[in-house]
Amino acid sequence: MAAPGLIHRSNPGGESQSAEKGERLLNGCVPLSHQVAGHMYGKDKVGILQHPDGTVLKQLQPPPRGPRELNFYSMVFSPDCTNSHLLDLQMLLPKYFGTWSPPGSTNDLYLKLEDITRKFNKPCIMDIKIGQKSYDPFASAEKIQQQVSKYPLMEEIGFLVLGMRVYNVLSDSYETQNQHYGRSLTKETVKEGVSKFFHNGARLRNDAVSECIRKVQNILQWFEFQENYHFYASSLLFVYEGSSLHTTKRLIDGTVVEKRAVPKGQFTDGECNNNIPMFSSVRNGETEEAVEKDMAEICALQRKPCSKRHHSQVSQEGESTDQGTLRSLNDLSHEHLNGNLVSKLENIHCHIPTDPKEGPQVDVRMIDFAHVFPSNGKDEGYIYGLKSLISVLQSILHD
User: At the top level of CATH, which class does the domain 122-243+368-399 belong to?
Assistant: First the structure.
């Protein structure tokens, strides 16, 4: 049976043949389910697939774009590379594992790349094209006009949101936006448009915003010190963990509370991210003696049991810190789990303390290199776009 989305509608007699051909061609690969921008498999001749080993396959574009991107990856990840700038750049790109072709189709070439999202349980993804120009120096007048007409504000704003996919913790579903959403953003609305990516339906993920700023600043630092390449129509891929350590529940009275979930790396079931099963063992943690029967019953009432592997506490919703909001276990033990207490529990959430040194799970990488050219100076257009984006992100964080 062919993977979903691979059978294109055609005449009844040719549909099964098309499915069989697709199955043989893909050789166990499936379309990348969480792709938010670019050429989509099934809609375009080229598209991104996911290999059974968890890597992603980007089909090589027609010349000169495809060979140019292949040469760029090969140069940056060459085993013989000694250029300090390129060695630093390796950390800012998805890892490159060479090329791949389906058996019997050696001319059908794919770039084999690291799947940045694979380590995430509920990946929130945004693709932003960076720079003041989305066309390269060799583009025809027609091509230039075409690109400028798509987003006339590119030169002023310096970046364009190509798409996003955001996990909503309230509905346990994803909300997506395509390139038309990004093109609708103006100088006045771009901050609000980008901030949508960081809102999980219950709150703004300021922790993810802050970490994204730090990572984009690292990329800016690389560009400030390199003068050998100019990047056009290249993007930044943003990913953060949507479920993180929080899940959120809407209570009977409409109050929204957050509840701590199992930290990353401790999923007990076969969580599946983009068709690749992700299994990990549960670590046996220490349980403090203070966690007694009352706490277990409180968590049970919330229909989200607190982990027995960690110390569980109860705090009033709306307080900014744990200290001063914790109700003592002794007080709780004198109350009975009756109707009166149930009503009081509507504003209480369970949580698992986390390592304060461990920040949010966030990744930002540079992608799309079909329009990278040698230069003799700084890439001012790309630098402008990075600074503009950082300014927008900082504004979101501070507001």
Answer: alpha beta
The helix/strand/coil state of 15 is helix
Structural domain spans, the chain: 1-115, 122-243+368-399, 246-351
| Residue 305 dihedral angles phi and psi, to the nearest 5° | -60, 140
pLDDT in tens, 50-91: 899 999 999 999 999 999 999 999 999 999 999 999 999 999
Phi-psi label, residue 304: left if phi above 0, alpha if psi -120 to 50, beta otherwise? beta
Query: Distance between CA 19 and CA 191 in Å, rounded?
Result: 44
**Rounded-to-integer distance, Cα 312 and Cα 318, Å:** 18
Rounded to the nearest 5°, which phi and psi values hold at 39? -70, 125
Rounded to an integer, what distance in angstroms lies between the CA atom of residue 120 and that of residue 264? 8
Token pair belonging to 293: 């029967």
Contacts of 254 (CB under 8 A, 6+ apart): none
Task: Write the pLDDT tens digit of every residue in 160-174.
Answer: 999 999 999 999 999
